[in-house]
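Re: that chain you flagged

S.,

Sorry for the slow reply, it's been a week of failed gels. I finally had a moment to sit down with the sequence you sent. For the record, here it is as I used it:
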Amino acid sequence: MQNSNSQNCYHCGLPIINGEVFWADILGEPRKMCCPGCQAVAEAIVSNGLEDYYRFRTEFADKGDELLTETLDTLKAYDHEEIQQEFVVDDGSQKQIQLTIEGISCAACGWLIEKQLLKTPGIKRIAVNVSARRATINWIDSELKLSEIIGQLESIGYHALPFQADEHEASYQKESKNYLKRIGLAGLMSMQVMMLAIGLYFGIFGSIDDATKEFLHWVSFLLTTPVVLYSGFTFYKSAFSSLRMGSVNMDFSVSIAIIGTFVASAWATISHTGEIYFESVCMFIFLLLISRFLEHRSRHQASLISANMFKYIPLTAMQIDDDNKQTSVLAKHLKKGQKIVVRPGETFPVDGVIINGNGNVDESMLTGESEKIRKSTGAHVYGGTINLSGSFEIEVENELKLSLVNKILRLQELALSDKPKAAVYADIASKYFIVIVLGITLISYVGWLAYQPERAFWVAISILVATCPCALSLATPTALTSAIAKLNQYGLLVKRANIIDVMPDVDTVIFDKTGTLTNGHFSVSDVELFNAADETFVYNLAAGLELYSKHPISHAFQSQTPCAVSQVVTVAGKGLQGTYQSQVVKIGNISILDNSDGLRPTEDDSRVYLQLGNQLIAAFSVKDVVKKDAKQLVDDLRSKQLVMLSGDSEINASLVADSLGIPNVYFRQTPIQKLTYIQNLQAKGHKVLMIGDGINDAPVLAAADVSIAVGDASDMAKRSADIILLNSKLSNVKFAVSMAIKVRTKIKQNMVWAIGYNALILPLAVAGYLSPWMAVIGMSLSSIIVVANSIRLLR
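Prediction finished late last night. Pasting the C-alpha cells below so you have them in one place:
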C-alpha cells in the first residue's frame, strides 16, 4: 500500500496539519511523518529489518504514541505478581498470556507482530489472531518481563492490554465450543448415514444382496452411535434434570424420540426385522442442535453490549498518595475517597469526581452517544468511559464493584430474568402441551397397535418428533432478548422486562417539566433590586445559599466569591434559610418571604426572592430552555392523551406546554398531587406512561404502569423507573414505545406459527401420514423460523 497523498503521514495516513514534518527512511526513500510517535515507530520497524511490512500492508497503521517513554514506564505495573495472577498462566517453566492488541488492521500487522516478538530473547511462542485482535504469547519470565513484551508492541505502534474474558464471555465461548463439536459430529455422520440410506432406498448401489445390505445397515449403526451418545447427550441431561425436579420439559419427548428410534433401528439391524431410521436420528439431532445454537447466539448478541461495557475497564489505575507520589494499583482495589490520575487516551477505571483538570470525555459505551462531552472540576466521570483530552485528577466515588457499569449489568440480568406474562404463559403451556402430546402418543400407539401393529411404534415416534414444542418455548425469550439488546443500543436500560406487556396498551403519557422536557439548566434572565441592595452582593449571597441545594434552579446562581452562609436548612416546598453575619437570610419562592417587607406580588409570581433580615433585597427571574427534541417526542406521542404535571408556576409551565402543544397542564403540583392524579386515571382504566427525572417524581414513576427516567435523573427516580434513558435523546422514548409494540407483534407471530404448526402437524402424525424423517424436517424448520423471526428485531 502506498501513500498517495504527500501531505499525509506515511505511517498512519493522517493529515500533517501543524506544518512540522518528521522524516523516516523507509524502502529507500525519506517519508513524511506527522509526529515523533509515528517517526519512532517507523524507525523501530525499519531498524529491526521489518520494513517489508510497509510493502505488503493494506491499511494504514494507528498513530504512534507521542508519550511512548511515559507509557513504557507505566507498563512496569504488569510485572507485579499480584497483578499477573489476574491473567497470566504459569506452568512452572513458561508463562502464557492472551493480549488484546489495538491497531491491527490487516494480515501484515499480524506478520509484523510475530516477526518482532520472535526476535526477542525469552519469547518461546506467539500466535496472532488478526480477526479477534488477540495474541497468545509464551515466554520465560527469568529472561524477559511482561512489561518488556508489551513495550515491544508499543514500540512498533500497537497498544496491548491483557485480555480477560468476563464470566459471561467465558461461559459463552465454552458453550459455543460444545455446540460446535456436537453439531460438527452430527453433521458429518448425518451426511454419511444419509448417503447410505438414500442409496439403499433408491437402489443407487444397484442390485445388492441381503448380506451387503446388512453390512451397510451395520455401518449406519456404527456411524449413528456416537451421534446419539455424544451429540444428543445435552437433551438427555436436560430431560433427566427436569424429571429430578418432578416435571417434564420439551427435551423429555425429544429424548424419548431419539432413544426410541435408535434402539428400534438397532434392534432391526441385529434381528434383521423391522424398519431402520438411523438417518432420521442423525438429522433430528443435527437440526435440533442447530436451532439451539441459533438461540444461543441470539441470546449472546443480546447481552454482548453489556459485556462490552465491562470488557474495556482497565486493570490498573495510577493512584496519587498524600505526597503526590503516583503508584500503579489494581483498579478493583481502589476505595472511595482515594485519588487517581487519568491521562489523555486512558480509560477511567472507576466512577469518580474530577478534582482537578478539564477536557473531553467519550461516554458512548454508557449512553450510545458518540458526541464527546466537556468535563471540568466537580463533574462526575464513570468507569469504562474514555478520557479524550486533558489530564484529570479524580477522587474515587464508587469502588469498581459498585460502579455504574456494574449496576447496569446487574439491572440487565434482573430484566432478563423477569419474564413477561407471555413468556410465563408459554412456559406453562409448553409443560401442559408435552403432557397432552405424551397422552395422545400413548393413545395413538394403542390404537395403531390394534389396527396395524407394525406401524404403531413409528407413528408414535413421528408424533413425538413432529410436535416437539421447541418453537413454542423459543417464541417469547428470543424476541424479548433481541428487543432488550436493541433498546440497550439506543441508551435505554430496561429494568423490568414485563413492561413489554403493558407498554403497547398505554393511552396516557404524563410528562414532568423541569429536567424532562426542559434542560433543567436555569439561568437568571433578570434581577430586581430592593432597599438599595448592591447587585454583586445579592448574587454572591444567593450563590452562598444555593451551594447547599441540589435543586436545578441552584445552578442559576454561580459565583466565584459566594458569601459564607452558615446553618443552611431546606424549607420544604419553599426554599432555603441560613445565617449570614448573624442575620437570617432566605431564598426561594414567594411563600418563604416574611410579610413585614410589605411586598404584594402577583398570585403566580414565579420569581426567586432573596431576603436578608427583615428586608427583601432582590427578586430574580429565572428561565429554562426546552430540549431540542422535546417537540418531536410530543408530536410522536400525540395519538395518546398528553399531560404535563409540573411543580413550577403557571406561567413557566404554560409557556413550555404551549410551545410543545401539550393540551393538559397542571402546575404547582406536589408529589402527592401528582400521585393522586395518576391513581385517579388508573382507577378509570387508563394505562399511564410517566416520564420524569426528579426526586419528587419517584413516587409517580413507581406508581405508573410504565415509567421512564430521563437524562440526569436522580438516583431515586432511576430506582423507581422501569426504563432508564442513559443519554439525553428524548426521541429514544418513542423508540421504546415502538419497540414494545414490535416485540408484542413478534411474540404473537411466533406463537401463531408455533401453535398453528403443531395444530396442523399433530393430526397428520396421528393419522400416520408422516414418517420420522418428515417429522424431523418439519420440527426443525419450525424452530429455526421462530428464532430467525425474533433476530430481525436486532436490525
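What I noticed first: The first strand starts at residue 22 and ends at 26.

Talk soon,
D.
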